[in-house]
Amino acid sequence: MADTLVADFDVAELLHQLAEHCVELLGATAAGLLLADERGTLHIVAASTEKTRLLELFQVQNDEGPCLDCFASGEPVSVPDLADAMERWPIFAAHAREQDFASVHALPLRLRGEMVGALNLFGVTPAPLSKADLEVAQGLADVATIGILQERALRRSYTLTEQLQHALNSRVVIEQAKGVLAGREGIDVDEAFSRIRSHARSNNLRLTELAREIATGQLKERLSS
User: Fold this and answer.
1) Which PROSITE patterns does the entry mention (predicted)?
2) Are 10 and 206 in contact (CB under 8 A)?
3) Where do the domains of the chain lie, and which CATH numbers do they carry?
4) Which residues pair with 46 in a beta bridge?
5) Cβ distance 91 to 72 under 8 Å?
6) CA angle at residue 147 from 136 to 116, to 5 degrees?
7) How far, in Å, CA of 123 to CA of 194, rounded?
8) Helices 207-215 and 189-202 meet at what angle, rounded to 10?
9) How far is 60 from 9, CA to CA, in rounded Å?
10) Fewest CB atoms within 10 A around its CB: which of 3, 34, 108, 140?
11) Full-model pTM
């Protein structure tokens, strides 16, 4: 949270940290995060793995799944066993199970009545989310929501639409950089993203700006793992 009080606060990095912390603290296999644009359409902005990013994208493209229901209702959506969700989300549930996921829990990014997006937690075995883990996950989601809205307050020239659009644009640049680096160095996209983040942290660079340099070819040096 303290990071949101500095001038160069990086929204993209905050959201990726949220996904990572959920995996580390809650024992989830993977996590994905979606934010809404000014029309209320959800977009994938962070994911702990490439497979998760593609699954979240599949969910949005097919207009079906837990994050969409969570965002629409403003309430958590918990499915301990995706086999039980085949009628509710026939397309999403079948595809998620094909990707070896067996459970999903979606939590709202909401401050009072204002919905910003939703967080998905995936597991490879059927399992409920305990009350304690649910509270931790919602707490992390709340911190991210406050961070996003705090950043808007600090930059009064930004509207919420502009701030969220910035996060979405940052995600596009990051995806381009992952692809460029993966192709250039013969590694998978998850490893490429890990190297980009590591290089940004080691050199005190903003994640989005480093990604832009890689995507546009300005930075050609090899990034170590």
Assistant:
1) ANTAR
2) yes
3) 2-156 (3.30.450.40), 166-215 (1.10.10)
4) 33
5) no
6) 80
7) 22
8) 120
9) 28
10) 3
11) 0.71
